[in-house]
Amino acid sequence: MNIIFEERNSSQIMIVAFFIAVVAFGVGVYMYWQGGSYNTSDTIGFIVAAIAIGVILFTFKNLTIRLYDDKLQFGFGLFKKTVMKGEIRKVEKKKYKFGNYLGYGIRRGMDKSWGYVIGGGEGIFIETEKQKFFFNTEKADELLQLIKQTLI
After folding, report:
1. Which of residues 59, 74, 95 is at a domain's end?
2. Considering only CA atoms, which of 145, 120, 143, 100 is closest in space to residue 7?
3. DSSP labels for 93-146?
4. Could you tell me if residue 80 is inside a domain?
């Protein structure tokens, strides 16, 4: 199994949100150590929520795309989708439309496709027999040609 193409894109929005979660964690720790008028259970809940948000945002900060000689894999952290050779019915380059996905991360689009989205710009739209997918890439033209040559 050879890697033909690999790309990792970072989401600036998720990075900023991650730092906000870190600050919230710091505020929670400060509240805990200060004691006083702060309720301990509320403070601990605040810290746990900040940690959970930080972990989620850290997971979704990088979109990884890998094209092998027999499959295409894309996704965030542990949340990856794999499309095998021969499954693709249609593949094309498209622009990201916020009105379709209404956000970033893994999103269900108004067009019933699954979006793996880190921001605006271009991406690859893939249709299989069962599902449709869209994911951002900075190298849409190159990846589109490689997918056509390798998997279709």
Report:
1. 59
2. 143
3. EEE--HHHH-SSEEEE-TTSPEEEESSSSEEEEEEESS-EEEEE-S-HHHHHHH
4. yes
Q: Indicate if 69 and 85 belong to the same structural domain.
A: yes
Kindly give the pairing relationship between strand 114-117 and strand 79-84: unpaired
pLDDT tens sequence for the chain (152 residues): 799 999 998 876 666 777 777 777 777 777 777 765 666 777 777 778 778 877 877 778 889 999 999 999 999 988 999 999 999 999 999 999 999 999 888 999 999 999 999 888 999 999 999 999 999 999 999 999 999 999 98
Predicted structure pTM score: 0.78
Look up the domain containing 105 and give its range: 64-151
Q: Are residues 30 and 103 in the same domain?
A: no
Local structure of 26: helix, strand or coil = helix
Residue 3 lies in a domain: no
Q: Which residue has the tokens 């209404």?
A: 102
Tell me how far apart the alpha carbons of residues 9 and 28 are, in angstroms, rounded to a whole number. Answer: 31
